[in-house]
Amino acid sequence: MLDPLMQAAERAERELGLVALPAVLAAQRADDPALALFQALDAGLARAPGHLLLTVLVYHRELGESQRAYSSRPLEYPIGGRKTLGQAPRMRHVLASGEPFIGRSRQDIVDNYADHATLLAMGCESIVNMPVRWGAQVLGTVNLLHARGRYAEADLPRIAAWAQLSAPAFLATLLHR
C-alpha cells in the first residue's frame, strides 16, 4: 500500500494531466497558439501553486538579453520589455545552469532583482524562476511571484511540467521576434 504522501503526489499528477493536456491541445489550435499556450500556463499555475505575477522571458542568446513574451500583469510588466543579463544576475545564473531558483523572502527579492521596489509594492516577496529547455538549450524562464514563503521544492515538479508544456510557445516567440 502506498503511503499518504505518495498517494497525494499521484493524485496531483493525474489532476495536472487532466487539466494541462486539454488546455495545451486547445491552445495549439488557437489563432495565436503561442499566446494561448502562455495563457494556459498562467491559468494552470494560478490554480496551483498560485501567483500574484507570472512573467515569461525568452532568452536571445546572441544578444545576451531576455525579452518579456507574456505577463499576467501587463500594466506593471508589459510584453516586449527587455533586459540584458548584466541587469539580471539571478537570471544569468538560471539560464547558464538550467536549474530553477526559489527565492523565499523579501530579502531574496531585494538581493536579486533590480525591480525589487515594484515587486515588493505588488506584495511579491517570493519567487520561482523556472528554466524552459529544448534539448540542452535553455529557451528562457517562467517566473512566478507571490507572498513571502509561498514556494517550496515540492512546487517545482508542477511548475516545471507546465513550463515545459509551453516550450512550443517559446520557440514560436523566438522565431518571430
Spatial strand sequence of the major β-sheet: 3-2-1-6-5-4
- Whole-number radius of gyration? 16 Å
Largest sheet: 6 strands, antiparallel
Number of strands: 6
* Topology order in helix (H) and strand (E) letters: HHEEEHEHHEEHH
Anisotropy-based shape: globular
| Unreliable sequence segments | none
State the secondary-structure class: alpha+beta
Please describe the structure with a list of short key phrases separated by commas or semicolons.
177 residues; 7 helices; 46% helix; alpha+beta
Which helices and strands, and how do they pair?
Elements: H1 4-28, H2 33-47, E1 53-60, E2 65-71, E3 82-84, H3 89-97, E4 101-103, H4 106-112, H5 116-121, E5 126-134, E6 137-146, H6 156-165, H7 167-175
Antiparallel strand pairs: 1-2, 1-6, 2-3, 4-5, 5-6
Detailed description of the structure:
With 177 residues, the chain is an alpha+beta fold. It has helices at 4-28, 33-47, 89-97, 106-112, 116-121, 156-165, 167-175, and strands at residues 53-60, 65-71, 82-84, 101-103, 126-134, 137-146. α2 (33-47) packs antiparallel against α6 (156-165) and α2 packs antiparallel against α7. The chain is globular, with a radius of gyration of 16 Å. The termini are far apart. The mean pLDDT is 90.
